[in-house]
Amino acid sequence: MTSQSYTIRNADPNEFEALGQLMVQVYSQLEGFPKPDEQPAYYQMFSNIGEFTQNPGVEILVAVSQKGTINGGVVFFRDLQYYGSGGTATQEKNAAGFRLLAVSPESQGLGIGKALTLACIQRAKDHQLSQVIIHSTKAMQTAWQMYERLGFRRSEDLDFMQGELPVYGFRLHLPA
After folding, report:
1. What's the fold here for domain 6-173?
2. Which pTM was predicted?
3. What are the boundaries of each domain within the chain?
4. Residue 75 belongs to what H/E stretch?
5. Are 22 and 39 in contact (CB under 8 A)?
6. Which residues pair with 99 in a beta bridge?
7. Which end of the chain has the lower number of beta carbons within 10 A, N or C?
8. Can you list the alpha helix ranges (DSSP code H) found in the chain?
C-alpha cells in the first residue's frame, strides 16, 4: 500500500467496533505493554471506543484504504476535560489532545500514524488552540520518535502512573 492509498476522515459509527478491535490487536501486541487480562478496563475502553464521541468536541479519526479497510485510528479531544487520562492533562486550558493512536500491523511504516497525528494537530490549529497534549509509554518508542520529529517535547508535569505502567506526557506548542 502506498501512502496515497488511504484517506483520513471521521469514523462512521458503524466503524467503531472494527476500530476498537484493531486497537485491541495493536496494543495487546506491544512488548512491555499490559495485556488485556492485566488491565481489562483499558481494553474495554477500546471495545467501546465510540463512547468517547458522546462528549463535545471529541472526534474519532480513521485512516481508510481505497477498499474501505480501516488501517488506523485515533481519538481527538478539542477539550481536555474529556481526555480521560491520569495526571494533570485534563486541567490544561486552551489545549487539544489525542489518545489511542493505532495503526494495523500490516499498514505500519506507511506514514499513517504521522498522517493521523498531523490531522489532529490541524484540528487544534483550526480551533485556535495553543497546544496539543499527548501521552505515550516506553512500549511505544517508535511513536515517540515520530512525535518528537513533529515538534512534541517531553513534558514531565504531565506524567502519571496507570497501575504499574509509567505514562509519559508530551506537549506541542502551536504558533499563535
Report:
1. Aminopeptidase (3.40.630)
2. 0.94
3. 6-173
4. strand 70-77
5. no
6. 75
7. C
8. 16-28, 40-47, 112-126, 141-149
